[in-house]
Design a protein that fits this description.
The chain has about 300 residues and is mainly alpha-helical. α1 crosses α4. The N and C termini lie far apart (about 40 Å). The relative contact order is 0.23.
Length: about 300
C-alpha cells in the first residue's frame, strides 16, 4: 500500500474515530437493561478476547515484563475499565448522552494540570485560558445554563458519576505515559483489558447478588457487549493508533474535539435526545477551550 493511500485512509479514519468513541455514550444511554458493572465487564472481556490472537505471542514473549508490571496493569484496569467504564454507565441512567460527551471532553484539562506537576510542562496563558473556558463550558451544562443552579450547586447524581469518570480518564491518560512499559500499545491494551476484567468481576458478582443480574438469555445483552467491544473498543482504539502513526499525535488529537458534536448529533438521531440551548453554550466554550489547553507549549501565548 502506498504512502498516499495510507494517508487517505488515515484522514478518513480521523473523521470516523470520534464517532466510534461517541457510540460508547449512546450505548450507555441505550443499554440500561444491562447492569452497569456487567456491561463494562462484558465490553472489556470481549475487547481482550478480540485482541488476544494478535497479542498472545507478545504476551508470552514478554511474560517477565507482565510479572513486573502486574500492579500497574491492575491500577490502569481499575481506572480505565471499572471507573471510566462502569461509572459512566451508572451516570448514563440519568444523564443525557450530550452531557456525557461535553463533561468527558473536558478531561484533558486534568492532563494539562498533571503534566505541569509531573513533567514541569509549561503552563502558558493560552493553556490557562483554555482551562477556564473548559470549566465554564462544563459548568454551563451542569447548571443547565442558569447561574442560580450553579450557585446552589444543584448537580444531579448522574452528573457527578460522569464527572468522576471524566477526571479519572485524565488520570488514566497520564499514567499510561508516566508508567513505562515493555509492552507495545496493542499488547498492553489487551493486558490492561484482562486486568480490568479481574477488577470488575467482584463488583459484577455483588451487583448480581444484591441488585440486578444481567439477562444473559436476552440477545440485546450480548449485542450490547459486542457493539461496545468492536466499535468504541477495538475499532476506536485501533483507528486512533493508525492515525497517530500516519498523521502524528498532534493532528490526531485535534480530531477528538469533534466528540461532543458527534455525540449530540447521534443522540438526537438515534435516541431522540434533542440538544438544549445550554448544550450549545457548553460546546461553544469547551471546544475552543480544549484547543487552547492542549496546544503545545511552544505555540502558547
Amino acid at each position: 500500500m502506498s504512502s498516499l493511500t495510507r494517508r487517505r485512509i488515515a484522514w478518513t479514519l480521523l473523521l470516523l474515530t470520534p464517532a466510534m468513541f461517541a457510540v460508547n455514550m449512546l450505548m450507555a444511554r441505550y443499554a440500561t437493561f444491562v447492569p452497569p458493572n456487567a456491561l463494562a465487564l462484558g465490553r472489556w472481556f470481549f475487547v481482550a478476547m478480540l485482541l488476544l490472537p494478535f497479542a498472545w505471542p507478545r504476551l508470552v514473549r514478554h511474560r517477565a515484563a507482565l510479572s513486573r508490571e502486574w500492579r500497574d496493569l491492575l491500577l490502569l484496569g481499575a481506572i480505565g475499565m471499572w471507573i471510566c467504564g462502569a461509572w459512566v454507565y451508572i451516570g448514563a441512567r440519568s444523564v443525557p448522552a450530550l452531557n456525557i460527551g461535553l463533561i468527558y471532553a473536558a478531561s484533558p484539562i486534568l492532563v494539562v494540570a498533571l503534566g505541569r506537576l509531573l513533567y514541569r510542562e509549561r503552563l502558558t496563558m493560552g493553556r490557562i485560558a483554555g482551562i477556564v473556558l473548559c470549566l465554564a463550558g462544563v459548568a454551563a451544562v451542569f447548571a443547565k445554563g442558569r447561574l442560580e443552579n450553579l450557585l446552589s450547586v444543584q448537580f444531579t447524581e448522574g452528573d457527578l458519576w460522569i464527572a468522576a469518570a471524566s477526571a479519572c480518564w485524565g488520570l488514566y491518560s497520564v499514567l499510561l505515559k508516566a508508567r513505562p512499559s515493555a509492552l507495545d500499545p496493542l499488547t498492553r491494551l489487551c493486558a490492561i483489558s484482562f486486568a480490568g476484567c479481574l477488577v470488575l468481576l467482584p463488583f459484577t458478582v455483588g451487583e448480581a447478588l444484591f441488585w440486578q443480574a444481567p439477562d444473559l438469555a436476552d440477545w440485546r445483552t450480548w449485542a450490547s457487549f459486542l457493539v461496545l467491544a468492536v466499535i468504541p473498543g477495538v475499532g476506536a482504539y485501533g483507528a486512533f493508533a493508525y492515525c497517530v502513526r500516519e498523521l502524528g499525535p498532534s493532528v490526531t488529537s485535534v480530531s477528538m474535539y469533534l466528540g461532543p458534536l458527534y455525540v449530540g448529533i447521534l443522540a438526537w438521531v438515534v435516541l431522540g435526545e434533542a440538544p438544549q440551548w445550554y448544550h450549545l453554550i457548553g460546546t461553544v466554550l469547551v471546544l475552543p477551550g480544549l484547543f487552547l489547553a492542549t496546544r503545545p507549549a511552544s505555540k502558547g501565548i
